[in-house]
Amino acid sequence: MVIRRCGAQRTVAVAVAATAVLAGCAADPAPSADPVPPTAGTTLVEPDDANAPLADAAVPTLGDRDLDVAHYDLELDYTPETGELDATATLELAVERPSDAVVLDLVDLDVTGVRVDGAEAPFDHADGKVTIDLGEVVAPGAPMQVAVDYAGVPDAVQTRALGGVEVGWQVRDDGSYVLSEPEGARTWYPVNDHPTDKATYDITVTVPEGVTAVANGELVEERADQATTTTHWRMAEPMAPYLATVVTGDYVGTSNDADGDGVLPQNVWTAGDTDGAEDLLAAQGEAVDLLEGWLGPFPFSTYGGVVLPPDDTEPFFDNVAIETQSLSLYGAESVVGETVVHEAAHQWFGNSVSVTRWGDDIWWVEGFARYSEWLWIEDADGQAAYDRAVERTYDQLAEAERPVAPGDLSVSRLFSAWSYDRGGLTFAALRAEIGDEDFEAFLRTFVERYGGANARTEDLIATAEAVSDEDLEPFFDAWVFSDELPPAP
Ligand SMILES: [Zn+2]
Fold first, then answer.
1. β-strands 67-79, 199-208: how paired?
2. 116 CA from centroid of ligand 1 (Å)
């Protein structure tokens, strides 16, 4: 995600900062992302078990650690005029411990029926959880199909991670879009809502004739019925729930000229007309080319972008771009070069390799995406320009009275300068420490090893140490786990 603080800022878009001194502009309309007192390094809830993958202080009530969803098949019938969603979600899943129930996250919408392997099953829907009674204790690993019928008008939920901004299904005048990071997936489908339970997806969207619907992955089928259009999208690579998206509205699609010979197929949707579509296709193509040089092949079979129309309901999102998997969404004011490369970088860092715990791992997700902006600057304008970008960011961060270690961020600091900028500087410092050759090998090895899955900071450190054959514990202690800002890279 990128949250641009200034509409016209060209070089480095500064994310929501933890302290005012880090903000790029004085008159910033963005909400504060730090509503709690700035006590360095604290988490809201201590994990109850160091080995429990879902003991996530940032989203303590979400996800079931004993559940493993392999696939979501979402059939959505959406009417933009009324905002109503009528849907069936069919999940292929297994429990990981003996269990007589399956618990899924879903807020607000009405569940009207549940079937387990085709047979109706009793359920309870309360406090954002759908509890499905399996009728017997089921053994770990046994494959099961759970179908949930549900309907209603989806409503986004507030997240402390963005200072109270609402994430999830966003209703707009002539359509909708989904921006869920970090906790909005439960606003539109029943889900094991934590990034550690990644799954493949089929998303089929039926909308009134004349409305466009787009979702993650490849278009499998499109058909027109009497007064509706149905499109079926498939994400064949594992995807964290918050990265699933559906966009509906008045959009026009534009494709690049991929000839199947090393060119990644791209599709871009723009509101109403194709203004800017060619520019975005070109910028995304250049960003992917640059990043493939550092990281290896693009992790998905297609890439795309949607440029959202200006949002009168929540203008905050006009300056936000989000790396929804294989299909980045750009707020109306957010389409600039650095944003495009930032979201492209997330397709590797964040999407293919995902966080294990938000507060522990977001620094290398947002940090590498921020760092990719400097790679972009270096590629376009040379090393002196890269050095200036790194130096300027360091100088801004060094102004903060109370520096914060990025390796254990509270929920209000997930999307702060401590993840983006200090994270980015950590990559710059690591490159300076181990040299270009080992740095590139480290990046490639990390995405090869953890692609399609999740990683922890410890995994990243171990990869860097193995590739460089250096003891990097003091380096990462200083950059990631100590509050004090180390000397400039
Ligand atoms: Zn980002």
1. parallel
2. 38
Mean pLDDT by runs of 10 across the 489 residues of the chain is 61 29 27 32 36 72 93 98 97 96 97 98 97 97 97 96 94 91 97 97 97 97 96 98 97 85 89 85 95 97 94 84 97 90 98 97 98 97 98 96 96 97 98 98 98 97 98 98 97
- The confidence score (pLDDT) of residue 16 equals 32
Q: How far is the CA of 353 from the centre of ligand 1 (A)?
A: 14
Q: Starting at the edge strand that comes first in sequence, how are the strands of the sheet with 129-138 ordered?
A: 99-105, 129-138, 123-126
**Kindly report the CA angle at 47 between 397 and 200, in degrees rounded to 5?**
85
Task: Measure the CA–CA gap between 203 and 227, rounded to whole angstroms.
Answer: 20
Sequence letter at residue 378? E
Q: Cα separation of 92 and 116, whole Å?
A: 10
> How far, in Å, from the CA of 343 to the mean position of ligand 1?
6
Domains and CATH numbers, the chain: 2-50+353-481 (1.10.390.10)
Q: Evaluate if pTM is beyond 0.85.
A: yes
Question: How far, in Å, from the CA of 408 to the mean position of ligand 1?
Answer: 18
State in Å: Cα 340 to ligand 1 middle: 10
Give the environment of ion ligand 1: residues with CB less than 5 A: 1, 366, 369
State in Å: Cα 344 to ligand 1 middle. Answer: 9
Phi, psi of 55 (to 5 degrees): -75, 75
Ligand 1 centre to CA of 74 (Å) is 26
